[in-house]
Structure formats: C-alpha cells, structure tokens
Amino acid sequence: MAEPKEQTDTGVLTRPHPIAGVYLGATACGLKKSGALDLTVLQLAEGARTAAVFTRNAFCAAPVVMARNHLNAGSPQCLVINSGNANAGNGAQGLKDAEQTCQWLGEELGLSADAVLPFSTGVIGEPLSMDKIQSGLPDALADLSISGWERAAEAIRTTDTYAKVASLALDIDGHRVLLTGMAKGSGMIHPNMATMLGFVATDARIDQACLDQALKNASDRSFNRITIDGDTSTNDACTLTATAQADMPWIDDVESPAYQAFETGLARLMQHLAHEIVRDGEGATKFVAVQVEKGVDSEECLQVAHAVALSPLVKTALFACDPNWGRILAAVGRAGVGEDATSPDFDIEAVEIYLGDVLLVTQGGRAASYTEAAGQAVMDQTDITIRIVLHRGAVSETVWTSDFSYDYVKINAEYRT
Fold first, then answer.
1. Is residue 275 located within the same domain as residue 390?
2. Which neighbouring-strand residues pair with 117?
3. What are the C-alpha distances in Å from 214 to residues 35, 201, 238, 264, 409?
4. 111-158 pLDDT, tens digit each
5. Bridge partners of 165?
6. For tag attachment on the chain, is the N or C end more exposed, with fewer CB atoms within 10 Å?
7. What is the pLDDT of residue 340?
8. Would strands 175-184 and 164-172 be described as parallel, antiparallel, or unpaired?
9. How many beta carbons lie within 10 A of that of residue 319, not counting itself?
C-alpha cells in the first residue's frame, strides 16, 4: 500500500522531530542476511523516565524478560534493539545472551547492565549471533545523533515494506511539547501487545505514575486495537520515555487538564503508528475499520469486532473486493454476544450492519434497500469501514485490520528462506 503522507489530517507529522535528551544510532552488524541496518541504540539523558508495556504471550522472548527485570530495577538510560533475530524460544541461553548484550553496552557507556533495556525482533528459535552484536555496538554508538530517528526506524523493521516514524507537537497550557515515535510490525499482529515494537519519546515533564498510566491507556486505544492475523508475538513491546526537557510545569496528576491533553496527544500519535502497521500488513491491500456501536460494554463490542476482523472468510472477501455480506453476518452471529448469564439476550432483529454508508442487514436479514452495485462500490475502495450497530447499550469500540491476500501466504511461507 502507499506510504504515508508527510502530514495527516490529524496533524501527525511523518517527518520526525528530534526530542531533546534522546540520541539514536543504527548500524548493520550482519544479523540480517540482506546486510541492511539491524542494530539500534537509544541513549537517554540523565533524569529521563521510561514506561513500558510488553507481550502477554507465555513464551515471551528473553529480551522481554530482561527488559521487565531491568525496568523494575530503576530508570533505564539506554535501549538496544536488534532485528533479524527474535532471541525467543532459546531457553536459558537466550537469557544469558540478552543479559550479555546489556553488559557490553553498559561497559561501553559506563553504565550498569540493568540500566539497559534490550529488545529483539525476527525469527524465533535461532540462537543470537553474539559476535555480531558485540562488534556492532561500538558502530551503533558512533552513529548516535539527536536526529537519528529515521535510521533507527529503518533498522528495527523486518518484513515491513517501509519504516514507520512520526511526530506530534502539542500545546499544553501554552507550552510546546513534542512527541516522536517509531514502530515496526507487519505480520503476527494482534491485540495484547500485538511481531510489533514501538518506541515513543517526549520532552514533557511528567512523573512516573502519570507516564505509566498514559502509556497503558494510549496502548489500549492504539496498538491493542489492531489485528492482522490473530497471532500475538513473543517479543511485542512498547516504551514511552519522557526526558523532562520541555519548558513547562510538571504533570503529576492524572485528573489534571494537562495530563488529559498529554494522554490524548500520545494516543493520537500511537494510533497513527498503529494504523501504519495495518496499512503495511503483510500483503495487505485494504485498511479496514470494524466499528461496533451501542453495545452493553467495551468487552462485548470488542468481542464482535474481533470476530469480524479475524474472520479469514471476511478478510479474503475484502481482498477479492467481493461484497459477500453473509460472511460478516455469520461472524457477528458467532461472536458469543449474550452468552454471559449477566448480559441481555442477543436480539438479531435489532442488529444493523453497514458497509461504509450502505445498510446491509436489518431485522435479521438483508436490507430491502441494499443493492449489489452499492456494496461493490464500497468494496472497491482501499479504506473501508464495517459498522455493526447492536442496539443493546451505549458503548462503542473500533478495531483496525487488513485483508488477506495471496502475498500474505507467500511472505509467511517463505519467511525463513
């Protein structure tokens, strides 16, 4: 699909702005067979605070375990990211290798190993080539620059067809605050830290509790609302670093207008990056919003949205531009709405299903106003909204997904070759 515009309708800039107190360096150490950039270091200014969220996959990768431990030990001063190898499924050796990477980088910078957070992405189950990591770290450090976001975004990607990086400027009580972030992901994408990695930084002055809350809430509204194929990775992680370099009062109250403005802006930036992951889904030709309205609660709405977004039959129909609305109806019907003893029964007569602005289903069957030509006109578009109105409550939720193409199968069938 087409690369993103330089500026979006929401004001997000895809040309990154430097964040004071964040330095990025990237190099090619040989982990990728192509010889492309594959090792990245982010050095953080003294006093920077970092929050993180991680995959919920029980077989989480060694760097996830190590990053969690190091984050709990104190304030990290450096991040290191390798692509081309996930260092997942490698048992005790994987943990040793993740720790060794942190040790080497710490020695280069005069830091303890637990001041470094490691991240990896790539093939699962292959040992990490530690000689390449060791030789590459000095080169990545030599490349450190406050304007290194684009090279870093390039270095963290695997099957992505383009690097994903963006910035947003906020006005918080008359003070200018910057946010810049990068993400990678194209396949193995599903909520609960959908293989994706995301790294966001801001110059805002914000305390740790507010930073943690903002990242959790923004992740739930962005990266945890996208799905490509239903596979939750072993390596997913997203970090948010605040360097406190902006000229502004401290944000230390989650109820304050300043905090609300910051969280809203963060969610907007992260939602943009999440949408770019969907647009760049492996072999994707469609960007699809599945919007569920008037549900009893968020859980119910997401239950329906995921049933539709993850349906291979719906996704292949989207690829074929086939307005086969029966597949959407069937997915909604098997979502399990109303099966909880505490929720009201599911009245299918009340459900309305729309493809764009075209009403497909009402009163339990095809709408009398529906025509195949109207459905086809929507399916021929690149950006599509599937809207499901349950008429059971007042809650709405949206999940973003893509279609399944021939290329999705080809890319994943040939992933290790």
1. no
2. 79
3. 37, 12, 12, 9, 36
4. 999 999 999 998 889 999 999 999 999 999 999 999 999 999 999 998
5. 182
6. C
7. 77
8. antiparallel
9. 19
Angle between helices 208-220 and 257-279 (to 10 degrees): 40
Tokens of 288: 């699809």
Do 106 and 116 form a contact (C-beta atoms < 8 A)?
A: yes
Angle of helix 325-333 relative to helix 312-319, nearest 10 degrees?
160
Q: How far apart are CA 287 and CA 228, in angstroms?
A: 10
Q: Are residues 81 and 165 in the same domain?
A: yes
* Token pair in block for residue 155: 């270095």
Name the strand (E) or helix (H) holding 372. Answer: helix 372-379
> Are 395 and 295 within 8 A, CB to CB?
yes
pLDDT computed for residue 342 by the predictor: 72
Report the C-alpha gap between 67 and 119 in whole angstroms. 7
Enter the pTM of the model: 0.89
Q: Is residue 129 part of a domain?
A: yes
Residue 355 neighbours by CB distance under 10 Å: 23
Is residue 195 annotated as a catalytic residue, yes or no?
yes
Which of 195, 234, 239, 398 is an active site residue?
195
Q: What is the CATH number of the domain that holds 368?
A: 3.10.20.340
The whole-number pLDDT of residue 5 equals: 54
C-alpha span between 122 and 36 (Å, rounded) = 13
Question: Which pLDDT score, from 0 to 100, does residue 194 have?
Answer: 41
pLDDT at 328: 97
Going by C-alpha positions, the residue among 169, 174, 170, 243 that lies closest to residue 206 is 243
What span, in angstroms and rounded, lies between the C-alpha atoms of 184 and 82?
12
287-299 residue pLDDT tens: 999 999 999 999 9
Across 35-44, 306-315, 398-407, which has the greatest mean pLDDT? Answer: 35-44
Average pLDDT for residues 310-338, to the nearest whole number?
94
